[in-house]
Amino acid sequence: MTFRHSPPLALLVAVLACLLWVQAASAQDKKRVLVLHSYHKGLAWTDEEDLGVASVLKDLPQVEVFTEYMDTKRVPSADDEPRLVELLARKYSRIPIDVVIASDDDAFQFMLSRRERLFPSAPVVFCGVNFFDDSMLSGKRGFFTGVVEAYDVRNTLRTALTLHPGAYRIVVINDRSSTGLANRKILSEVLPEFEKRVSVVSLDDLDMDDLLARVRGLAPGDIVLLMTFNRDKSGRAFDYNESLSMIAAQSKAPIYGVWDFYLGKGIVGGLLVSGFDQGRVAAEMALRILSGEKAGDIPVVKESPNRYMFDHTQLRRFGVAASLLPEGSRVVNRPASFYEEHQGKVLAVVVTFMVLLGMVAALWVNIQGRKKTEAFLRESEEKFERIFRHSPDWIAILRLSDGAYMDVNDAFVEITGFTRKDVLGKTSLDIGIYANPGERYELDEKFLRHGRTQNQELQYRLKSGEVITVERSGEMVEIGGVKCIISIVRDVTSKKQAEQALLESERQKKLRTEAEIKMLQAQINPHFLFNAITSIMHYIRTDPETASDLLVKLGDFFRKNIKPGGSSVSLSKELEHCEDYLSIERARFEERLRVTYDIDPAALECPVPPLILQPLVENALRHGIMPKEEGGEIVIGAYAEKGAVRIVVKDDGVGMEQAEAAALLADSQGAPVPRGTGLALRNVNARLVAIHGVQHGLRILSAPGQGVTISFTIPKP
Fold this sequence. Notes:
Elements (H helix, E strand, L loop, with lengths): L5 H24 L1 E7 L6 H14 L5 E7 L11 H11 L7 E5 H15 L5 E6 L14 E5 L4 H11 L5 E5 L4 H18 L3 E5 L4 H9 L5 E5 L13 H11 L4 E2 L12 E4 L2 H16 L16 E5 H6 L12 E3 L5 H4 L1 H48 L3 E6 L5 E4 L1 H7 L3 H4 L4 H4 L13 H6 L1 E10 L5 E13 L2 E10 L1 H30 L3 H17 L1 H19 L6 E2 H19 L3 E7 L7 E2 L5 H12 L6 E9 L3 E8 L6 H6 L15 H14 L6 E4 L5 E8 L2
Parallel strand pairs: 1-2, 1-3, 3-4, 4-5, 6-7, 6-8, 8-9, 11-12, 19-21
Antiparallel strand pairs: 10-11, 13-14, 13-17, 15-16, 16-17, 18-20, 21-22, 22-24, 23-24
């Protein structure tokens, strides 16, 4: 038989095979955790531990949890252990377990002795273990870790005696189960502390009927410490809730405990151990092992996460004030407040009240706003009236439709010379106030388009015929339903005159500066020119090449003097000009003249006034170096100094007294200048002061035989 569709069928088989392989691989990737409980499902403590484990592991898709119960409280026979071993070995022979969580003492002891037989490669995390000692894990620490059930009997009893200061006896209820035997060890260490203060009685080997009879006989002054009573002397089993409810029903004395599953069911409270927290912490440790950590590297948690918890009903029954409880205590069964019982209704009433309150507030704000607005309007009218009447500028109110004056202020009358009678009801054309009638508002299309104008400059003619310059600003407004123009006019005749005077002053200053430049250009010493020509003629006969270079330098020097290059040049250009001058002078003086430059490269681009440096260098040569037979040295320097560049010309010439140096910059009416006329130095100083201020003028330091140092500063741009 031939199937025409066999290729699709083969494809389907291949896909199914892949899916099965992926599912198998996914199953292999899962981690498996076995939770082995000492007791039975339904026991409050065990159920709390199981919930704690589930809170960590239940929502992890890569973790699968298996749960087993040993049921040792109800079936305590040690003969059942071999059968339990056989059952677990058969059940989990094909299910590899990665971690075992053993809750409480029986499961912990079982895993200590049977782990290598049942789960040789699986680490064990324990919880709820009483009276733990490190020696229990001797030789096995690499596979075991966990959290100890370190309930705190000592602080529970201390708190009970504090809350009941009249107590004289502590009655301890305990059983003979494995948990009870562990309890007895802890009690034997703790109770001696309290036997010095009160009487201590233990009820731990009784039938339930005998126990209840003893409890009924308790009187005020007794405090009951309930540990566990899950199995009586006759072997009858009771869960925690069952035994507590029977004991609490017969007791007239307050009952305290150490486990949270008793809370809310008859005990007053205490520093309680939480089964949920025990299971949660153990599951978190198991998860760390599944993530790759070794059990032996995870420390055993010996400080149990205990906390003070109390029952409000029992506190009230025995007259214990909540203010006496330890700080941070949790109280259950607290009666709900009126707000908690009627939260919805209370919120609805509050919201309604807030809405109504908001409406009332809005109305009040509106009324207050209207009052403020009315007061503001009144105040504005009063201010406008005061401003209008007493303003130093003249103000006029004109009707837009025909331009007639509706009102004018006192300044208008005082400045223009027109009285109110002269202008009210008339237009500006009628009184002829405009020197140019075309500047009226009615003819100003820009004003009509924008409704305002500011600082228009125009000419007004006063009643006396005098024409003045004014600045006018105007605004279109509505007054009493009539469109009007408020015109504010300021006499700026004096201002314009001052501006013209300032412009003329600037022009004169510019002319003076230009004249000073021309004076500098013209201030070429005839002796320098004569000496330069003489030197060149000498070199024409002896060294034509040097003579040619000197002619070029002299030409450059004259060209830069005639056309210095604007209001400022770079310092480098000014140094070139000085070098042209010095090249010619060196030809005369040869080795008698030495010039050194000490220039910061960063200062070369500093803008300086043209022809500002050469006069200083020439002054140093003529008055400092030339009088010395042996000659001397001139140092030209420039460096940065506090937001400026300082330029220095220094010589080691004959020098002078400091008083003589100061006189070089004195006015022409001052003391006479001993050496030379000082004209060049004064000119340079005047230019520097005019351009940059007196703080940037020349500074001259000198002493006889010590040379002269002249410096000035140029502010950095």
